[in-house]
Amino acid sequence: NIICSIVFGDRFDYEDKKFLALIDWIEENNKLQTSIQTQLYNFFPTVMDYLPGSHKQLIKNLRKVDKFTTGIIMEHQKTLDPTCPRDFIDAFLNKMEQEKGNDHSKFTIETLSRTTLDLFLAGTGTTSITLRFAILILHKYPEIVGNGNKTFKLFKT
Predict the structure, then answer these.
(1) HEC string for 62-112
(2) What keywords appear on the UniProt entry (predicted)?
């Protein structure tokens, strides 16, 4: 939700069905990325388009996540106040407006969509993985939990 606040300018309720679906798609894609079909798709996309496999679901999930992001961007375009940017999307939209006459500008809706998605996925992925590893370490080394005023040490010196 911290990443959502920065990128989307809003937090989602933890019971929000759209938000939970988004998290499910991302989690499923994290699992699907390790499948052999997905890895083959990365090398032979044209051939793999004709073959069944988990890579098809990964692509469907990416489209759903992209649709989610694009919907938020479209809502931001409708409610944009250039004098008061709420988040990354508003700042990007303001820059798009400044670059309007520049034919070589990289500030486009497509770039905004991809960048927003990259920031969201990178932020949620790294944070959740870090927290998971921290919990695993705490589980493996229970003696470091609840040491009172002592310094937490993972390794004995």
Answers:
(1) HHHHHHHHHHHHHHHHHHCCCCCCCCHHHHHHHHHHHCCCCCCCCCCHHHH
(2) Endoplasmic reticulum, Iron, Membrane, Metal-binding, Microsome, Monooxygenase, Oxidoreductase
